Amino acid sequence: MAMTLRLDADHDRLLEALAAKYGRSKTEVIEIALDELAARADKSARTRAAFDRVRTRDADLLDRLAQ
């Protein structure tokens, strides 16, 4: 599926510079950035879920430690 991406001049220059630096096309740089952002969001969600499980499981202990 094709898509048109509109960037302001500063972001277009940044994209062009990154593509040149890494020897990639602009499309490849955008795809890499999207993949990395999605992975980071997934990791954050898993971290929050783990924290919530621990907080629920150890609520009594955490209350005692807080006093």
Automatic annotation (TrEMBL):
<feature type="domain" description="Ribbon-helix-helix protein CopG">
    <location>
        <begin position="4"/>
        <end position="40"/>
    </location>
</feature>
<protein>
    <recommendedName>
        <fullName>Ribbon-helix-helix protein CopG domain-containing protein</fullName>
    </recommendedName>
</protein>
<dbReference type="InterPro" id="IPR010985">
    <property type="entry name" value="Ribbon_hlx_hlx"/>
</dbReference>
<dbReference type="InterPro" id="IPR002145">
    <property type="entry name" value="CopG"/>
</dbReference>
<dbReference type="Pfam" id="PF01402">
    <property type="entry name" value="RHH_1"/>
</dbReference>
